[in-house]
Amino acid sequence: MLRNRLLFTQNAKSINLAGIAPSPNSRAKGNVNFCTKPKAKLAAILPALLVAFTASFASGNAFSATATYNDHAQTIADTKVKDEERFTVIAHRGASGYLPEHTLEAATLAFSLRPDFIEQDVVITKDDIPVVLHDIHLETVTNVEDVFPARHRGDGRYYARDFTLEELRQLRVHERTNSDGSQVFADRYRGNHANFKVATLAEHFELISELNRQFGTSVGVYPEVKSPAFHIKEGIDASKIVVDALNAYGFGGESGNSYLQCFDFNEVKRIRETLGYKGKVVMLIGENDWGESDTDYEWLRTQKGMQQVALYADGIGPWLGHLLDKKAMAQGKIEAAEWIKYAHENNLTIHPYTYRHDALPAGMSSEQVLEVLDNVIHADGVFTDHLIPVLRWREK
């Protein structure tokens, strides 16, 4: 599970959406270069654009001169009363900006900071137990190569599906690494002695449930069914397992404090129609070449696509790189991409992924990025690795 985003790191050839999305050849799913046209012109005007952006907020008249998002402002007002809603903060893989992702320790730290939801990406073990890992592979976040060097498949990857829970317990979870062993985010957790472990979905749900009970809080869960088609080929229904777990811990159903997310549109439809799930569902939107599923994400970002999504899902989780109109940026404006209008017209909740404090746009502050999401995109919240700056901004 912009289930990995307004991260425009400027360089001479492109805008680098650092840490936003996987490139097809990246094991770490850490970086991708998103090239725009005309590149040189955009690179030249971006600093001035950001200065104007900052000045507009300082004057208290943000985007009044440049944004043309007003065409559908009335539609947005009719479907969502933004001033009366709280911007939702979702702990992306737990407090993953501070501790190794998806560990119980990262979930506990996230809970202590009081987000609205904590995310769990779910894959299934050899003995059919749901565990919380971002990928169906293990080598990017564990020492599986050292413990089970011969247990990879023909593609050289180590699949969680090939290991029992008992075997996964023998692994140590570490910060996400590149193929050369270097950390994807160099300044994040660097310790070598803490024994972080792979945890089950039941352990995560129990932890959050018990902390909620003891502290009188209502932090929700936000699980993602990872690669459901892969799991079906492996003979296991990952979606049913996750739905059953949500219901068992009181997070499921229409009144449950959760969202269930997936990158596979056919699976979203199956969750509704075949599994009969009544809780809130989010359709994640990526790029077609990421290999997340056979869903045509470009089609989803059309008027008809958003209408179809709204038949099955309560919201969308778009990649940050899809949110802004690139032609407008080339003209010195900050405007929402045209397709965002269709999401609002269909009253879809919008939770973009992923804000990372260590991958901010060059010359742009944390607050500016978040103001764009709130005031230009009119997003309902954001997934974040770094809860502290987002929660501080929301308090203001």
From TrEMBL:
Positions of the GP-PDE domain: 87-394
Keyword Signal: yes
GO terms under biological process: glycerol metabolic process; lipid metabolic process
Enzyme class: hydrolase
MF terms in GO: glycerophosphodiester phosphodiesterase activity
Record keywords, A-Z: Glycerol metabolism, Hydrolase, Signal
Annotated Gene Ontology cellular component terms: periplasmic space
Pfam families assigned: GDPD
The EC number(s) this enzyme carries: 3.1.4.46
Residues that span the membrane, as ranges: none
The UniProt record lists the keyword Membrane: no
Taxonomic superkingdom: Bacteria
Swiss-Prot/TrEMBL catalytic activity: a sn-glycero-3-phosphodiester + H2O = an alcohol + sn-glycerol 3-phosphate + H(+)
Similarity remark: Belongs to the glycerophosphoryl diester phosphodiesterase family.
Name this protein carries in UniProt: glycerophosphodiester phosphodiesterase
